[in-house]
Amino acid sequence: MSLDGALDRRKDTHSATLTGAGNGNGNGALTTAIPSYSTHRLRLNPNTDHKPDSYEDLQLEFSPLLFSSLEHYLPPTLLNVSRESKVQYMREILLRYSPEGERTRVHGLQARHASLNKFSELHLLVISPAKQFLIDLLSILTGSEAQRIPTEDYIKLPGVDVSNSVLKINSLTDFLQLVLGGEPLHRELYTMHAANFFVPSFLKAVNECTEESFRSIMTEPSPGVFAFEMLQPHFCELLLAEVENFEKWVHETKFRIMRPNTMNKHGAVLDDFGLETMLDKLMEDFVRPMSRVFFPEVGGSTLDSHHGFVVEYGLDRDVDLGFHVDDSEVTINVCLGKQFSGGELFFRGIRCEKHVNTETQSEEIFDYSHVPGRAVLHRGRHRHGARATTSGHRINLLLWCRSSVFRELRKYQKDFSSWCGECQREKKERQRLSITTTKLELLKREGEAAKEAAS
Ligand SMILES: O=C(O)CCC(=O)C(=O)O
Ligand SMILES: [Fe+2]
Predict the structure, then answer these.
(1) What is the CA(307)–ligand 1 centre distance, in A?
(2) What is the pLDDT of residues 201-233, one digit of tens each?
(3) CB neighbour burial string for 326-343, b if at least 16 within 10 angstroms, e if fewer
(4) Is 288 a residue whose pLDDT tops 60?
(5) How far is the first Cα of the chain from the last one, in angstroms, to the nearest whole number?
(6) Count of alpha carbons within 13 Å of 299, Cβ hemisphere only?
(7) Residue 27 in this model has a pLDDT that exceeds 80
(8) Are strands 154-156 and 305-313 parallel, antiparallel or unpaired?
(9) DSSP label at residue 421
(10) What tens digit of pLDDT does each residue of 167-196 get?
(11) Distinct helix (H) and strand (E) counts, the chain
(12) Which of 326, 396, 397, 399 to mutate to test the pocket of ligand 1 (most atoms within 8 A of CB)?
């Protein structure tokens, strides 16, 4: 692999749109022919600036408010088409939620039995930006007024005992998963059970939470790269099965998911299928304590958001990964399995934005071989890539952790010599020059003084 070319800045695609499958380019053809559902797309994040039409005057089988609400989620190209086209498009999507034969009328609205049963036991904590849409959709599905409890952002369903179960909905994807029947396979993964997830040595080190305790379980084979045993084999198996299950569901429902970032064609964003809360805990309670100790100068103690995903390599998947820096302050990369050869990570020194393409010094060259269950912790700005996985399948869990404080402060700084290898070298060079100049100046003065004394 060549490292000569310009290095990539990996960006996640997480904030981009969630799209349905098919070509669905959403043009005006919709007025004359109603394509099958598979061509209908919704955005994951609503366009909040869009002013929706009113549908109050139309005789529709769904609440007019639902159509207005759903409009925010239409693909951009559809926002300005005629109201009739939008209605057709949105009806098609809504009808999908209440397929023929499963439909019933509750309080004059359509509801889907299966969903109704599911929801009747649930207290939904909705964290999604799609909140209002979900509330409207819930009203449709349950046939009664779903209520938002503003202080907690819960949705309460009338006549439902909410004390026993709480289900978090983080995203529209979560919701679709629930409604369309894409149930999680291993629910125990969705809340943090540290004793089941991590190996005892890792738990002990985090509990003690000192540099000494961390170093006792880690190696630092190259400055700023820490490797340690972290995940239990059973947890890796469950997570692999969960990812497989999710991908099967995606395939069956023909949803096209967003890939983890700009450089992968395979893999999945774990946050998008309900693991966001668990991964947030992983960042807060496990990654941040380590980063506070090892990476304080890049916001390690103030990590406050994450992007969590899996990457999948093999000859029939992504094969390798080009030279890049992550869009993170701190990255934790844990190998989940399975059997593979190749796939080594190569590291080439830490750089700030200005120096990202500067030369590598020999002492910055380091290669790391992945081992299932083992984690690598490094700064996001540590330049790296992954060599080809030459046989089998390699699946890794990645958590890119970010600090908004660090990102804000960075805007006002120019010198990053506390972490950037090149800034450090430049600073040392400046110091060396200034010492030499001072020495020369002193010598000159001594010479002059000697001359004066002699004359
Ligand atoms: O394949 C790997 O282990 C590296 C993945 C990586 O660097 C990334 O996803 O940012
Ligand atoms: Fe990376």
Answers:
(1) 13
(2) 999 999 999 999 999 999 999 999 999 999 999
(3) bbbbbbbbbbbbeebebb
(4) yes
(5) 68
(6) 22
(7) no
(8) unpaired
(9) H
(10) 445 555 555 555 544 567 888 998 899 999
(11) 13, 22
(12) 396
Nearest CA, atom 6, ligand 1:
385
Q: Determine whether 100 is exposed, middle or buried from the number of CB atoms within 10 Å of its CB (0-12, 13-18, 19+).
A: exposed
Is the pLDDT score of 431 beyond 60?
Answer: yes
CA distance 370 to 243: 19
Helix 83-97 vs helix 131-142: crossing angle, to nearest 10: 60
Atom of ligand 1 nearest to the CA of 331: 10
Which residues are 312's β-sheet partners?
395
Ligand having the closest approach to the CA of 259: 1
Q: For a pLDDT cut of 90, what percent of the chain falls above it?
A: 48
AA identity, residue 182: G
Give the pocket of ligand 1 (CB within 6 Å): 10, 311, 321, 326, 333, 345, 384, 386, 396, 398
CA distance 288 to 94: 42
Please give the distance, rounded to the nearest whole angstrom, from the Cα atom of residue 34 to the centre of ligand 1: 42
What is the rounded CA–CA span in Å between residue 79 and residue 90? 12
- Quote the ligand 2 centre to 198 CA distance (angstroms): 23
Asked if residue 396 lies in contact with residue 311, where contact means CB atoms within 8 angstroms, the answer is: yes
Ligand 1 midpoint to CA 321 (Å) = 7
pLDDT number for residue 392:
97
Nearest ligand to the CA of 399 is: 1
Mutate to test the pocket of ligand 1, among 321, 335, 341, 401 (most ligand atoms within 8 A of CB): 321
What are the Cα distances from residue 25, in Å, to 28, 41, 67, 85, 388? 9, 9, 20, 14, 35
What does pTM read for this prediction?
Answer: 0.67
Nearest ligand 1 atom to the CA of 260 is: 9
Which pLDDT band holds residue 159 (cuts at 50, 70, 90)?
A: very low
CA separation for the pair 122, 168 (Å, rounded): 10
Better-scored residue on pLDDT, 160 or 332: 332
**Cβ 37 vs Cβ 96: under 8 Å:** yes
Which residue from 122, 384, 119, 419 is spatially nearest to 297, judged by alpha carbons? 419
Measured from the alpha carbon of residue 383, the closest ligand is 2
